[in-house]
Design goal:
The protein is 45% helix and 25% strand. Strand 17, helix 13 and strand 18 form a beta-alpha-beta unit.
């Protein structure tokens, strides 16, 4: 066995819940620890530990990412009323992803992992379409009123100096609904920079769209900020890299996206990104083949899988049944984090290892060895359908052979 690859700075490791918590240590044990002298600082974001620490562990983990720069996160339960009962929780703790995102102030980029035997539902897509979702504001931080008797519906701003600005939305008879949404210039600016940096890093074009023809102040401001920051800070770097920034209307971009070959970063406003990332993921094949990274304007990175804790599979696992949970996106969270750590620390061997592990996964699936979720959609038919453990063992044997 060759010498293990050394690391200099620890990765911040955030463990999670249910089926993904079952798979997490196996991914490490079978695919990483035999080859890498792994350094991590471990935080247990499992629901019991979050409950025991009054969610302090989530805050500590986010602070550790701010200290070290790179984190890798497992999927976690966001508790609802059922979960409070199931685990006897003190309260419905907030979404850990929401807490971490608020502290790191980041943009989430979701990228499909492509293999040549799973064809995207859209025939022209040959390369990944990455969805970059603005993760602050709009309808996700709104105020709403049900005006039972209608009336004059208004929006009001009271400035710090007391100056009041008022705008009538509509004067209506009868019951009506009203919604107030906002965003901040600072957040939109950091969203724009995160997208341009990501496009440069991946050497892909960046497309952005809003509805500025209708929303002449709100969406227009998004458009202007992107164009101003691009012109002032990025135009030359994009030209040098041979990539483009393209702005159009949201309905136009949806139509055009269906005709492209892919290989694009699609920068989306918060709601557009919420909806379109699920469409793009399912059109590329499977949630289990979707990687995700949170990029902060302050230079912090957090890698994870796009899917959740795969609750249904976990209950089968508890009953002793085998599951077909696909660990690919979880493994990519690790390779993404290790590669970024290696880039920051100047560790070419570790960069190469991340590439080898990813390449091994792609080859394994393309040669017909895969979990059940992929076997349902692959063409030609799978040669061997493996359960989660068998698939990890198959990958482990292949990586060991490659690195021998
Ligand atoms: P989920 O974990 O994404 O799973 C939904 C369904 O998608 C599964 O039942 C399974 O379909 C399929 N699936 C997802 N990942 C898969 C994989 N790796 N391999 C094979 N199939 C996969 O969503 P959920 O079960 O609705 O949510 C469970 C918990 O996850 C919730 O408590 C939620 O709060 C949490 N969640 C966390 C995150 C995060 O931490 N980033 C994100 C989303 C949800 P079949 O059942 O048809 O096989
Ligand atoms: Mg969604």
């Amino acid at each position: 066995m060759p010498q293990k690859i050394t690391m200099t700075t620890p990765l911040v490791e955030l463990d999670g819940d249910e089926m993904t918590r079952v798979l997490w240590p196996l991914v490490k044990e079978k695919l990483i620890l035999p080859f890498v002298d792994l350094k991590t600082e471990y935080y247990d974001l499992g629901i019991e530990e979050r409950d025991r620490t009054d969610d302090q562990v989530t805050i500590d983990a986010a602070r550790a990412i701010m200290q070290y720069g790179v984190g890798v996160k497992n999927a976690t339960i966001t508790p609802n009323a059922d979960r409070v009962k199931e685990y006897g929780l003190k309260k419905q703790w907030k979404s850990p992803n929401g807490t971490i995102r608020a502290m790191l102030d980041g943009t989430v980029f979701r990228k499909p992992i492509m293999v040549n035997n799973i064809r995207p539902a859209v025939r022209s897509w040959e390369k990944p379409i990455v969805v970059g979702r603005h993760a602050y504001g709009d309808v996700y931080k709104n105020a709403e009123i049900f005006a039972e008797h209608g009336g004059k519906l208004e929006i009001v701003v009271t400035a710090r100096d007391g100056k009041v600005t008022r705008e009538t939305v509509m004067d209506v008879e009868g019951p009506a609904i009203l919604q107030g949404v906002h965003n901040t210039v600072a957040s939109i600016e950091s969203f724009a920079r995160a997208c341009f940096e990501y496009a440069l890093d991946q050497q892909i074009d960046c497309w952005f769209a809003t509805k500025d023809t209708i929303s002449k102040i709100y969406d227009q401001r998004f458009k202007d900020i992107f164009q101003e920051i691009f012109a002032a800070e990025y135009r030359e770097r994009f030209t040098a890299a041979g990539i483009e920034f393209f702005y159009t209307l949201i309905d136009d971009v949806v139509a055009r996206m269906m005709k492209t070959r892919g290989g694009i970063l699609w920068a989306c406003k918060n709601y557009d990104g919420d909806v379109m990332s699920d469409m793009v993921a399912s059109a590329f094949g499977s949630l289990a083949m979707m990687s995700s990274v949170l990029v902060s304007p302050h230079g912090y990175f957090e890698y994870e899988a796009a899917h959740g804790t795969v609750q249904r599979h976990y209950y089968k696992h508890l009953k002793g049944e085998k599951t077909s949970t696909n660990p690919v996106a979880l493994i990519y969270a690790w390779t993404g984090a290790l590669r970024k750590r290696a880039e920051l620390d100047g560790l070419p061997e570790l960069i190469a290892f991340a590439g080898t592990l990813e390449q091994t996964i792609i080859e394994c699936i393309e040669q017909g060895y895969m979990t059940g979720d992929l076997a349902l959609i692959c063409e030609p038919k799978a040669i061997k359908v493996l359960d989660s453990m068998e698939f990890l063992d198959e990958l482990a044997a292949r990586v060991a052979a490659k690195l021998a």
